[in-house]
Amino acid sequence: MRVLFVCLGNICRSPTAEGVFRRLLDERCLAERVEVDSCGIGPWHVGKAPDPRAREAAARRGVDLSALRARQLADDDFYHFDMLVAMDHDNLAAIEARRPPHRRVPARLFLGYAGYPDRAVPDPYYGGEQGFDEVLDLIEAASRGLIDEIEARLESAP
């Protein structure tokens, strides 16, 4: 199973989701069975590390984002990944606009896995540090729900 988290610039929400998701996969002994990556819709931060505030907030919860580097959504992602997970409605619309017409890899909002099918993960970039903690709370909840779904799929696979 291969999961790609997508946000706008790949320096706040999606790398945080990638880091949290990896940690939770490790805790559930699923890291060997699930590949995880993140990217952004736009090219603004390609090659850059996650926002320092995102790294600091994640580190306070035992999640290390320091090795991650931003990249942009690529056409190959529609063929490589089994699930595309968008942080907000604009990201989801951008994924759908770029999707090759014959490729139906599932894409949905991340917070749907936490029971909020129409809610977006807020972008903390222009806010204060408390926004990064709120994002972490939401990402942890959605990650648990997504891992439950993936685990059920893996258990039912032949």
Which tags fit this structure?
158 residues, alpha/beta, Rossmann fold, 5 helices, 42% helix, 12% strand, protein phosphatase, Ptyr_pPase_sf, protein-tyrosine-phosphatase
Task: Summarize the SSE layout with pairings.
Blueprint lengths: L1 E6 L5 H15 L7 E6 L11 H9 L16 H4 L2 E4 L2 H10 L8 E3 L19 H28 L2
Parallel strand pairs: 1-2, 1-3, 3-4
Helix pairs in contact: 1-5, 2-5
Keywords: Hydrolase, Protein phosphatase
GO molecular function: protein tyrosine phosphatase activity
Family: Belongs to the low molecular weight phosphotyrosine protein phosphatase family.
Brief summary:
The protein is of the alpha/beta class. The protein contains five helices and four strands.
